[in-house]
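User: My advisor, Dr. K., asked me to get a structural model of this assembly before our group meeting. I'm new to this, so sorry if the format is off. These are the inputs:
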Amino acid sequence: MTSSEDGPGRLLDPSLLRDTLDAALRTGGDFAEVFVEDRRSMSALFDDGRVEELTGGRSRGAGIRVVSGETTGFAHTADLSPEGLRSAAEAASAAAREGGSGRTVALNAAQVVHPGVVAVLPTDVSKARKVALLEDADRVARSEDDAIRQVTARYADSRRRIQVANSDGLLTGDDQVRTLFSVSCVAAGDGGMQTGRESVGHTVGFELFDRVDVADLARRAARRAITKLDAVPAPSGEMPVVVGPGGGGVLFHEACGHGLEADLVAKSASVFAGRRGEVVAAPFVTLVDDGTMAGEWGCYAIDDEGRPAGRNVLIEDGVLTDYMWDHLRASREGRDSSGNGRRQSYQHLPMVRMTNTFLLGGDADPDDIVADTMRGVYVAQLGGGQVNTATGDFVFGMTEAYLIENGRITAPIREGNLIGNGPDVLQDIDAIAGDFAMGSPGTCGKDGQGVPVGDGTPTLRVTRLTVGGTAA
Amino acid sequence: MTDLIDIADRVIGWASSDEQVEVFAVHERETEVRAYGQQVESLTVAESQGVGIRVVINGRQGFAHAGTLDLDVLAETLAEARDNVAFATTDEWCAVAEPDGIPPAELDLHRAALTDHPTGAKVAAALELERLVGEADPRIVGVESAEYVDSISESAVVTTTGIRSTSRETGCYLSASVLAGDNGETQTGFGFSIGRQPGDLDPERAAADAVERATRLLGAVKPDSARLTVVLDPWVSAQFLGIVGSTLNGESVLKGRSLFADRLGEEVAAPSLTLIDDPTDVAAFTATAVDGEGLATRRNVLLEDGRLLRFVHNSYTGRRSGGASTGSAVRGYASTPGVGVQALALVQGSRSQAELVADVEDGLLVQGVSGLHSGVNPVSGDFSTGAEGLRIRRGALAEPVREFTIASTIQKMLQDVIEVGGDLEWLPMRAAGVSLVIGDVTVSGA
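Assistant: The format is fine. Below is the predicted structure of the whole assembly, which you can bring to the meeting.
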């Protein structure tokens, strides 16, 4: 699907955008940009045996930035009238505060290639149908086992229309529809309570539920909580860790993804700064960030600076090939943005962010990888992580994991974090299988801004990671 | 600033007699200056507002929110909230809060000195902080960020049940994140200073803390795995207390998601622990006289000498558990009132961190943790987090350590507290920090 600025992305008249850019540059500046956003969201929460609430949300406004030399001035407004926009443009301009002569801008509408087509807009689906999905999930999860004591199911959809115009003459827009469903269960047994969670989210409309069975999702969440009732304390110390298909994306997101963001690299706040062209990983490691993957949680047609999403190979056969870039960092290096300039909302400045980050499959057999591991941990589901990009030290949580003993997956283990160092872990990967799968939808936080991201991996093994349990 | 109470009153005027309506409106102005390389990297001047409208009819609630206070959008938001009511399940306890006769404390949280502070001075503060950090130590090789941030916020809650309350406050902070380097190795540290007005801020302290935290980790090694006594730095203990607070929340208790649900009156922690949530303490960064439902906040003693005395409640969870709200509704405009602690602190002991360390034969001072969201499960109590700090040997700080985890369970850690320090400090979060000594924690490293 293609569209011009007259398509679904059009929020404000081009002449108003041009006038706003002119106002932003009236007292000088190297670059100005208007980002307009109109977001509508709907969510429904089922908890404690009842539909607790339905929530509707609306947020609309514009963020205006002016770059002058090394300084970025930024202001935003919820008032999209000509006066409101002019006032925000003047505030951004004053913030960038440089002398110089004014200039005017001509805008050229860009062609936008959308990575997918939304078949059923969630706003065209009745609230009753959405609520019915929640009721199904609750019923199925509770009937799975008497040990299930509490179920929370959540449905959420959003439609985010954006429009970007800048002083380079760019005029473009996008229409992003996302749909999410999650189920969380609490199971109780002799040893206390355990939790299990499953979620699915895609950049698609309500047709998500043509291919996702919420009953199946609910059963898996319930089974996860029940399985953990028998969990033994996690081991403590360094050992081999096998990560199951789909689960390991978070590992790469933290181990090296953030460290390959050009804004952190430019401040030498990344262990990967200055290492382009070097071998940074085992030779069968190829890592890709791809915002064009149709339907995935982190995909879009254009980023929040108006650049088309890209498929960017970050590590190829173990060699660091490139970082991820936004407009500001790219222009200082005299190159193009890689389409990774994103922001949480019109109230935020864009920065370098990941989209869908994944490791390409290898040729090992997943069963052989486990069979080859004498003692270690098998992680079936990861639960988020965090990294210090300057040191490379990162953690990620295991929300479903098992012991590996003598080449066999045995007892479930209690929750905990694993800790490692990004550059070390990349070298310590010794097997990658061919069973690639995408993981659960995530929200990546950086500098207080959250954006939707996806990730994926096949089964893989790291020869040495520190498992943070309490058992000897 | 916009007169929020007038706007809320107007929406309440649209309510019909068969419905309860609650309007929560906020307005915030924020300035953020980031310095880098002795230039202004970015200057953001942000003005934001929003409204959340809740409608309850016969025990069913609907909610909608909008990021603007325009009249046409307010009407649309009320209509959306009403439309959502029909889909909720009837819940006999569901209702908008009623006035409970407790007058809000008179807290002075607003400073004209901040609202009148010129932008130029804010820029100068960020630049000065970056300079102080850069000049402090030859091993500081970079300043990842140095920033000045302030906010002026106002909120109002008005209901058809007779609640009509407002609050306003100012706050500001300086924060620096630095890179220390030596022999090709890099370590990081941060420091900050918070206040209600710019005059409260101490840039030297923010800079010195950031430099100290980064440089003292230079040469850090991965420690051997062991069971040790740990001393949690105030920055770390405040985060730990925040997690403990989430288990003492009336909603978790009612919905069967709290470790401590059936344990009121029992000894759940070491006798040295008395834990109080008191948003009326003006020293707290998150102090507030009214909660998210417009009721007066109050001093709630949660643990006394290790015994569990009470949970915190909003009006719904209070009513449903046979009691009343403890003034603990927490929310933003985009959500219905939840329940939570707002200004949590331990009653402090008397000794300094150095004195606490001197009593530890073989242990670890934890100065930072990572992955609290991924490695701690407040339902099961499993606790495992990445950490960095310094080893303690024979009562003295020894080599720096990194890339390890500390693990236990929330239940066990509360019982294993050996001593609470006398260095209580309010931090930019809903809890105060204090040095805390905890025994028998598993350190996983090499």
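One thing worth pointing out at the meeting: Chain B touches chain A through 79 residues (CB under 8 Å).

User: Perfect, thanks a lot.
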